[in-house]
Structure formats: C-alpha cells, structure tokens
Amino acid sequence: MPARERSLVAVADDFGFTPDVNEGIVEAHRRGIVRAASLMATGAAFEHAVELARRTPTLEVGAHLTLVGLPSARNGGPLPATVPALLAALARGGMRVYEEFRAQLERILAAGIQPVHLDTHKHTHVIPPVLDSVLQLASEFGIRWIRKPFDWHWSGEPKATARERASVALMRLLRRSFERKLAGSGIRTTDRFVGLRMTGHFSAADLIALIHALPEGSTELMCHPGYCGPELAHARTRLKESRQRELEALTSPEVFRALEACGVRLLGRREL
C-alpha cells in the first residue's frame, strides 16, 4: 500500500473576538502556517473580521459556534457565562441550541461568507445534544467538515496544566458517543486533532517537535494567535499575552523549514 502524505491544517479560533485578535489571525495566515479561521458570529469584532476575510480570500473561514460567554444571536441576551452554567441550562431544557446555532450561521451567511467547517467555542459540541444540532445544521447548510476535538498524544508535546488535563479527561469520556454519532452523519473530520493541551503555552520549538512526530494523514492544529492590544487586554479571556507568543511561533521561519524537511504539507480543508 503506498504511503499517504502528511498534512497539517492550522486553524485559528476566535476570529471576531477583538480587532487585535483578528489582525493577529490574518498575520498568522499571511506570514505563517495558519490556513483557516473560525468566526464568532456574535463576537464584538465580527464586522471587522468579515472585512478582513473579504480582503484575504486565501484564508478559509468556518463558524465558531458559541453557547458560552457571548451574546445570543437570536435575541442579543447573554448566553451562559460558563460551561457548567450551560450544562445546567441544558439539563433544565432552557437552552435552544439548534435555534441559537442556526441564527449564528445565518448571520455569517448574510455577511457573504460560506463556512467551510463548523466547530464550537469551548468545544461544547462534545456534549451529545449540542453535537446533534451541529450535525443537523452541517447537513442542512451543506458544510462537510466539523472539528473532532480529542487531542492526539505525541512525544515531545508541551506539559499540560492541571486545568487542561482535567478538560482532556472529561472529553475522553464523551469520545465514544461523539464518534458513534459522527460515523452515521456523512460529515468529515481530519484524521486527528492537536492543540487542546497546548493552548496558551506552545513555542516554535514545540511546533517543530509536532511536525517531526506527525504520522500519515491529516492533522488539525487548533491555535489562538493575536496581538495583545488594548481591546484584548480589556476582554474577558485567560488568553492574552499568550496569543502574541502563539503568533510568533506560527510565523517562525524555523517552523517552515521543519515542514519542508519533513515533507509535511500545509492544507486547508478544501484541499483535503
């Protein structure tokens, strides 16, 4: 059997969060390895992100569907502030997930952007009823790709924090249900995913180690580049200075040299 090529799909989350995050994402595409961005329909800088996307047609754009921490696209009211609050709302039957996600997708489409992929803020689509809505909307809107956000373990990865290890352990419990639902949907994912444990503390050296470790097939790398300007400094997020460090790593010439040396191709999902 002939060997399959190795490909890396670098996707920047939180497009539309703040203008300085948006500028950093576009810079990570123009000078770096990022090939796609996930757009927040109700982010404070949504219109700014849309304008940048129009001026950067080589940047693939997907939808970063949000149930936590941002305004609702349906009525402008607040969504649950945290994932535990979301889980409580789902348990009470007080969260209209399909309607909320549909409103977010319709806002993105109305701005002239056809999403290439779907993923979710805080990976809430690992929750079974949320995944049901994501898969239904992907089918209805003809979107062929979603993120399968279960981290692939590789030698040399940065050491995860206690919070990140807990998050990975929780998501591992939901993986079997996720993969069963996905298998019958006809919706595609990359062969593997990395970035959950690396978020906020990876360097160019870590990316180089990842590139050398990649097996055959496609790997999605989730990242959060950005400039740490005044808008981000005042935003409610734990990822601030780390976004600029990620931007530096994603645009490192040494990373490009590692890709060439290892024969790893940078691709978007349209090319897979």
Descriptive notes:
With 272 residues, the protein is of the alpha/beta class. It has one domain: Glycoside hydrolase/deacetylase (TIM Barrel). Helix content is 43%, strand content 15%. The protein has helices at residues 19-30, 46-55, 83-92, 97-110, 128-141, 162-183, 204-213, 230-233, 241-250, 253-262, and strands at residues 6-15, 34-39, 60-65, 117-120, 145-146, 192-194, 217-223, 264-266. Strands 1, 2, 3, 4, 5, 6, 7 and 8 form an 8-stranded parallel β-sheet that branches. Strand 2, helix 2 and strand 3 (60-65) form a beta-alpha-beta unit. Helix 1 (19-30) packs parallel to helix 9 and helix 7 packs parallel to helix 10. The radius of gyration is 18 Å and the shape is globular. The model has no long low-confidence stretch (mean pLDDT 93).
- Dominant shape: globular
| Order of SSEs | EHEHEHHEHEHEHEHHHE
CATH topology: TIM Barrel
Report how far apart the termini are. Answer: 19 Å
Protein topology:
Layout: E1 6-15, H1 19-30, E2 34-39, H2 46-55, E3 60-65, H3 83-92, H4 97-110, E4 117-120, H5 128-141, E5 145-146, H6 162-183, E6 192-194, H7 204-213, E7 217-223, H8 230-233, H9 241-250, H10 253-262, E8 264-266
Parallel strand pairs: 1-2, 1-7, 1-8, 2-3, 3-4, 4-5, 6-7
Helix pairs in contact: 1-2, 1-9, 4-5, 5-6, 7-10
